[in-house]
Design brief:
- By secondary structure, the chain is an all-alpha fold.
- 71% of the residues lie in helices and 0% in strands.
- Helix 1 crosses helix 3, helix 9 crosses helix 10 and helix 9 packs antiparallel against helix 11.
- The protein is flat, with a radius of gyration of 32 Å.
- The protein starts with 9 loop residues before the first helix and ends with a helix.
C-alpha cells in the first residue's frame, strides 16, 4: 500500500504553529489543562529565592564557597529568566508589542543587568545590577487582586490627579509659610523655601522625623494646621481607592452570580427537554405534498 506523500500546505503549518504558541502561552500564564498553575508558581518561588540571594550577597565576610554558590545560582537565574523571556516572546501573538510593553520590559530587566555586567564589580555597574530587583514585580503579574487594584486606580484617576495637584499646592504654601516663620531664628534649618520643602513633606505626610522643627509660636501653630491638612490629604486618596476596590469586588461578584444563574437556567432547560422527549427525537414533519408523493410511489 503506497504511503500518502502529499506535502503539507503552509496553512496547516501556520495553524500548527498558532496552536503551539497558544498552548505555550496557556502554560506560561497558568491556564494549561495539564500543568495548571505550576509554571507561574515555580517562577514566583524562584523570584523570592533570588531576592533572598541578592540580600545575602551584600553581607560582608561570607566564605568563598558561599560567594561561589551565589554566583552559580545567579547564573542559573539568568538562564531561567532568559528562557522565560524567549518563550514569552515566541508565544506572544504580537512579539514586538510584548517586548515594548511594561511587563515585557520587566521580564527583560530580570536577567539583562546580570548578563551584561557578569564578571564586573565596579561600583556603578553594581548599582545597575540592582535592576534585578525588578523581578519582584513579576510576582503580581498574574494576580487577580493586583489587576482589580489597577482597574480601581484607573477608575478614579481624575480624582487622584486632582488630589495630587492640591497636595502640591499645599506643599508649596507650607514651605513658604514655615520659611517666613522660622528663617529669622533658624537660618540654617530653613535657609530657603526649597530647603523648607523637606520639613513640609515630613509634616504633610504626618511622619515628623524631628530633624527640623519649628521653635517660634507662630511656626508651631502653623505646623499644627499643616498636620491637620496632611491627614485629610492622605485620607482622600485612600478612601477613593478603597471605594473603587469595593465597587470592583461587587461587580465581580455580580458577574459570577449572573453566570451561575445563567448556567443553572440552561441546565434546567436541558433537563426539561429530556423529560419532555424521553425517547428518540421525533422525526421532522413533512409537507403534505411530499407525503402524498411518497404514498403514490
Amino acid at each position: 500500500m503506497a504511503e500518502d506523500k502529499t506535502p503539507r500546505s503552509s496553512g496547516d503549518d501556520a495553524t500548527a504553529s498558532a496552536k503551539m504558541r497558544a498552548a505555550l502561552r496557556a502554560a506560561l500564564e497558568g491556564h494549561d489543562p495539564v500543568l495548571g498553575a505550576f509554571v507561574p508558581r515555580f517562577i514566583g518561588v524562584f523570584i523570592l529565592i533570588t531576592a533572598i540571594a541578592v540580600a545575602v550577597e551584600t553581607i560582608k565576610g561570607l566564605p568563598e564557597w558561599v560567594m561561589l554558590a551565589l554566583f552559580l545560582f545567579e547564573t542559573v537565574a539568568v538562564v531561567v529568566f532568559l528562557s522565560e523571556y524567549v518563550l514569552r516572546l515566541f508565544a506572544a501573538e504580537k512579539p514586538w508589542r510584548y517586548a515594548t510593553s511594561f511587563w515585557g520590559i520587566v521580564d527583560l530587566f530580570s536577567f539583562l543587568p546580570t548578563l551584561l555586567f557578569l564578571g564586573f564589580d565596579a561600583l556603578g555597574l553594581r548599582a545597575l545590577r540592582l535592576l534585578r530587583l525588578l523581578r519582584l514585580l513579576k510576582l503580581v503579574k498574574n494576580d487577580n487582586s493586583y489587576r482589580r487594584l489597577v482597574v480601581s486606580v484607573r477608575r478614579v484617576r481624575e480624582e487622584l490627579i486632582a488630589v495630587v495637584v492640591a497636595a502640591g499646592i499645599v506643599l508649596y504654601l507650607a514651605s513658604v509659610g514655615i520659611y517666613y516663620f522660622e528663617h529669622s531664628v533658624q537660618p540654617e534649618a530653613f535657609a530657603s523655601i526649597p530647603e523648607s520643602m523637606w520639613w513640609a513633606i515630613a509634616t504633610l505626610t504626618t511622619v515628623g522625623y524631628g530633624d527640623v522643627v519649628p521653635i517660634t509660636t507662630g511656626g508651631r501653630i502653623f505646623t499644627g494646621f499643616i498636620m491637620l491638612i496632611g491627614i485629610g490629604i492622605i485620607a482622600v486618596p485612600t478612601g477613593l481607592i478603597a471605594s473603587a476596590l469595593m465597587a470592583a469586588r461587587r461587580h465581580r461578584d455580580d458577574r459570577e452570580r449572573l453566570a451561575s444563574s445563567f448556567a443553572e437556567q440552561v441546565a434546567d432547560k436541558i433537563v426539561a427537554d429530556m423529560e419532555e422527549f424521553p425517547g428518540d427525537p421525533p422525526e421532522p414533519s413533512q409537507p403534505d405534498g411530499a407525503a402524498q408523493s411518497q404514498k403514490r410511489r
